[in-house]
Design brief:
Length: 253
């Protein structure tokens, strides 16, 4: 009984495999084959592999047909263009060439103008950089001694105070000693002038916050905003304020 039941099943499986491997139509599996065949799970991978193989073959054929069609269309367009060119007269061909050359010439001229503009801008930038660098070098040479000069200003202030104190004292001072201090002070100011350091007067001048530093106020009926007392003199170096003058300013009552 078992052998009689197994043989028809095997026959059906072989028939289904035959139809799946060698289809008579473009479809991979007909509606009558697929339901019978899909009942056997162990034969499903074979079904899918056959389907993939036939689908890849058809896709490759379709892509080849598409490429051949595109190439044929391109050839037809080239032939049409060549026919149109052959139909043109020599004068028309020359006009076409002239137009194309004019377009190329215009593009080259625009590029040339852009390059000339960039070249001029680069030259101007280089000139400006050279000027700035030169000015910075000059400033470093001029103002390199600024901090050193500020330290020497304290020495000049000390000489001024010493001479003022000696002049106001009632004791008999040696003239040689006073002359020596005056000579030393004059030599110091001569050295200042060599390096562009100068003292400026501030007494009874209008108060200027750029060159004066107000230390205190003095009430006065006659003057207003005037420098009435100088505590320390002001100095400049090459036209720039080295130290502002420390002064007392009048305020009208």
């Amino acid at each position: 009984m078992k052998s009689s039941l197994v043989s028809p099943v095997c026959v059906n499986i072989l028939k289904n495999i035959k139809y799946a491997a060698f289809p008579k139509t473009n479809r991979y599996y007909t509606s009558t084959i697929i339901p019978k065949y899909t009942r056997f799970n162990k034969f499903q991978p074979f079904q899918y592999s056959i389907a993939r193989r036939y689908s890849s073959v058809e896709d490759s054929k379709a892509s080849e047909q598409k490429t051949t069609k595109d190439s044929n269309e391109e050839q037809n367009l080239e032939e049409e263009n060549s026919k149109e060119e052959t139909n043109l007269t020599p004068e028309e061909l020359l006009n076409q060439e002239n137009d194309s050359l004019k377009q190329k010439l215009s593009t080259l001229e625009t590029k040339l103008k852009e390059l000339e503009l960039k070249y001029k801008m680069s030259l101007s930038n280089c000139d400006n950089l050279c000027k700035i660098h030169k000015k910075e070098l000059e400033n470093t040479k001029i103002y390199a001694v600024t901090e050193f000069a500020k330290g020497l200003l304290e020495v000049a202030d000390t000489f001024e105070l010493a001479l003022k104190h000696l002049g106001e004292s009632e004791s008999n001072n040696s003239n040689d000693f006073v002359d020596g201090i005056k000579m030393t002070e004059s030599m110091l100011h001569q050295t200042f002038e060599k390096f562009g350091i100068k003292k400026y007067e501030s007494l009874m001048e209008d108060f200027d916050p750029m060159i004066h530093e107000a230390m205190f106020e003095v009430k006065d009926r006659d003057t207003h905003n005037k420098v009435v007392q100088v505590v320390k003199n002001g100095y400049t170096i090459s036209g720039r304020v080295l130290r502002p003058a420390k002064v007392g300013v009048s305020r009208r009552q």
